[in-house]
Design a protein that fits this description.
mainly alpha, flat, 157 residues
Protein backbone atom coordinates (compact mmCIF):
# COMPACT_ATOMS: atom_id res chain seq x y z
CA UNK A 1 0.00 0.00 0.00
CA UNK A 2 1.52 3.27 -1.08
CA UNK A 3 0.26 6.77 -1.09
CA UNK A 4 -0.34 8.34 -4.46
CA UNK A 5 2.06 11.13 -5.41
CA UNK A 6 0.42 14.51 -5.97
CA UNK A 7 1.76 15.98 -9.23
CA UNK A 8 0.81 19.54 -8.13
CA UNK A 9 2.83 19.37 -4.91
CA UNK A 10 5.86 21.65 -4.64
CA UNK A 11 8.21 18.84 -3.62
CA UNK A 12 7.81 15.27 -4.66
CA UNK A 13 8.02 12.73 -1.90
CA UNK A 14 9.13 9.14 -2.23
CA UNK A 15 6.20 6.84 -1.56
CA UNK A 16 6.70 5.05 1.76
CA UNK A 17 5.37 1.79 2.99
CA UNK A 18 2.56 2.34 5.45
CA UNK A 19 2.90 -1.08 7.06
CA UNK A 20 6.56 -0.99 8.17
CA UNK A 21 9.60 1.09 9.01
CA UNK A 22 12.04 -0.70 6.69
CA UNK A 23 12.53 2.22 4.26
CA UNK A 24 13.00 4.70 7.12
CA UNK A 25 15.63 2.48 8.77
CA UNK A 26 17.42 2.01 5.44
CA UNK A 27 17.46 5.78 4.80
CA UNK A 28 18.83 6.42 8.31
CA UNK A 29 21.56 3.81 7.90
CA UNK A 30 22.55 5.31 4.56
CA UNK A 31 22.69 8.82 6.05
CA UNK A 32 24.85 7.62 8.95
CA UNK A 33 27.21 5.84 6.58
CA UNK A 34 27.63 8.93 4.42
CA UNK A 35 28.13 11.09 7.53
CA UNK A 36 30.81 8.81 8.99
CA UNK A 37 32.67 8.65 5.68
CA UNK A 38 32.77 12.42 5.33
CA UNK A 39 34.31 12.96 8.80
CA UNK A 40 36.60 9.91 9.04
CA UNK A 41 40.27 10.84 9.56
CA UNK A 42 42.42 9.93 6.62
CA UNK A 43 45.42 7.69 7.06
CA UNK A 44 47.99 10.47 6.54
CA UNK A 45 46.80 12.46 9.51
CA UNK A 46 46.75 9.44 11.77
CA UNK A 47 50.25 8.39 10.72
CA UNK A 48 51.58 11.93 11.13
CA UNK A 49 50.05 12.17 14.61
CA UNK A 50 51.70 8.89 15.64
CA UNK A 51 55.09 10.09 14.41
CA UNK A 52 54.76 13.38 16.31
CA UNK A 53 53.79 11.57 19.49
CA UNK A 54 56.80 9.24 19.19
CA UNK A 55 59.16 12.19 18.64
CA UNK A 56 57.71 14.04 21.65
CA UNK A 57 58.04 10.91 23.79
CA UNK A 58 61.68 10.43 22.75
CA UNK A 59 62.49 14.09 23.54
CA UNK A 60 60.78 13.80 26.91
CA UNK A 61 62.78 10.70 27.85
CA UNK A 62 66.04 12.31 26.68
CA UNK A 63 65.35 15.56 28.56
CA UNK A 64 64.54 13.64 31.74
CA UNK A 65 67.89 11.85 31.62
CA UNK A 66 69.79 15.06 30.91
CA UNK A 67 68.10 17.02 33.68
CA UNK A 68 68.55 14.20 36.21
CA UNK A 69 72.33 14.02 35.70
CA UNK A 70 74.48 15.76 38.32
CA UNK A 71 75.68 19.20 37.25
CA UNK A 72 78.81 20.89 38.50
CA UNK A 73 79.61 24.54 37.91
CA UNK A 74 82.57 24.49 35.47
CA UNK A 75 84.58 22.20 37.73
CA UNK A 76 84.81 18.52 38.47
CA UNK A 77 83.46 17.29 41.79
CA UNK A 78 85.90 17.61 44.69
CA UNK A 79 87.88 14.49 45.61
CA UNK A 80 86.60 12.46 48.51
CA UNK A 81 89.63 13.33 50.69
CA UNK A 82 89.11 17.07 50.14
CA UNK A 83 86.70 17.59 53.07
CA UNK A 84 87.44 15.95 56.37
CA UNK A 85 84.65 16.11 58.91
CA UNK A 86 85.60 17.64 62.26
CA UNK A 87 85.57 15.33 65.26
CA UNK A 88 82.30 14.97 67.09
CA UNK A 89 81.83 17.24 70.11
CA UNK A 90 81.97 15.61 73.53
CA UNK A 91 78.68 14.12 74.68
CA UNK A 92 76.89 16.28 77.20
CA UNK A 93 74.21 14.87 79.48
CA UNK A 94 70.80 15.63 78.05
CA UNK A 95 68.45 17.75 80.17
CA UNK A 96 65.27 16.04 81.31
CA UNK A 97 62.04 17.13 79.58
CA UNK A 98 59.89 19.77 81.30
CA UNK A 99 56.64 18.90 83.08
CA UNK A 100 53.56 18.65 80.85
CA UNK A 101 51.84 21.55 82.62
CA UNK A 102 54.57 23.85 81.33
CA UNK A 103 54.38 22.57 77.76
CA UNK A 104 50.65 22.09 77.13
CA UNK A 105 47.56 23.66 78.68
CA UNK A 106 45.38 21.43 80.82
CA UNK A 107 42.08 19.92 79.74
CA UNK A 108 40.11 22.43 81.84
CA UNK A 109 41.80 25.37 80.13
CA UNK A 110 41.04 23.76 76.76
CA UNK A 111 37.42 23.24 77.77
CA UNK A 112 37.10 26.87 78.88
CA UNK A 113 38.58 28.18 75.63
CA UNK A 114 36.34 25.82 73.65
CA UNK A 115 33.27 26.97 75.57
CA UNK A 116 34.07 30.63 74.91
CA UNK A 117 34.55 30.02 71.19
CA UNK A 118 31.48 27.79 71.05
CA UNK A 119 29.36 30.44 72.76
CA UNK A 120 30.40 33.02 70.18
CA UNK A 121 29.65 30.71 67.27
CA UNK A 122 26.46 29.50 68.94
CA UNK A 123 25.34 33.11 69.51
CA UNK A 124 25.76 33.79 65.81
CA UNK A 125 23.89 30.58 64.94
CA UNK A 126 21.10 31.27 67.44
CA UNK A 127 21.77 29.04 70.48
CA UNK A 128 24.75 30.16 72.59
CA UNK A 129 24.20 27.53 75.30
CA UNK A 130 24.38 24.62 72.90
CA UNK A 131 27.43 26.16 71.21
CA UNK A 132 29.19 26.57 74.55
CA UNK A 133 28.46 22.97 75.53
CA UNK A 134 29.74 21.59 72.23
CA UNK A 135 32.78 23.89 72.33
CA UNK A 136 33.64 22.83 75.89
CA UNK A 137 33.48 19.14 74.96
CA UNK A 138 35.59 19.57 71.84
CA UNK A 139 38.10 21.87 73.58
CA UNK A 140 38.54 19.52 76.56
CA UNK A 141 39.02 16.44 74.40
CA UNK A 142 41.40 18.28 72.08
CA UNK A 143 43.53 19.60 74.94
CA UNK A 144 43.69 16.17 76.60
CA UNK A 145 44.70 14.57 73.28
CA UNK A 146 47.39 17.23 72.77
CA UNK A 147 48.83 16.59 76.23
CA UNK A 148 48.74 12.82 75.74
CA UNK A 149 50.53 13.13 72.43
CA UNK A 150 53.23 15.34 73.97
CA UNK A 151 53.69 12.85 76.79
CA UNK A 152 53.92 9.92 74.37
CA UNK A 153 56.52 11.65 72.17
CA UNK A 154 58.73 12.46 75.16
CA UNK A 155 58.30 16.25 75.07
CA UNK A 156 57.17 16.31 78.68
CA UNK A 157 56.73 14.00 81.67
Amino acid sequence: MTRPVDPNAKSTQIPRSVSGLAPIVADTALALEVHSRSFAPDEGLSRMLKIRLLICLACWIWAGQVLAAPHYAQNAPPPSSYYVAPPAPPAYPQAPPPPCAAVTPGPLRGAARGAAGGAIVGGIAGDAGKGAAIGAAVGGVGSAARRGSARASGSCY
